[in-house]
Design goal:
- The structure is a single chain.
- The chain is mainly alpha-helical.
Amino acid sequence: MAIAEARRRATRDEPAIVTIGDVTRVASQHHGHLFVDHEEAADALRQRYEAAGCRTDCTTDAFN
């Protein structure tokens, strides 16, 4: 969901920027999780980033 939101926010010639913070926000707002571990959110984002082919149109802080 965080990747999809980032893609919708991106302008036509810019990459979508999806952050670990976006993942924790989505987990909180949409799924009711009060606490999401930073490393777990980063790992989930890395997995979805790779699976969704995001290297062509996204950037993330999950690999830092």
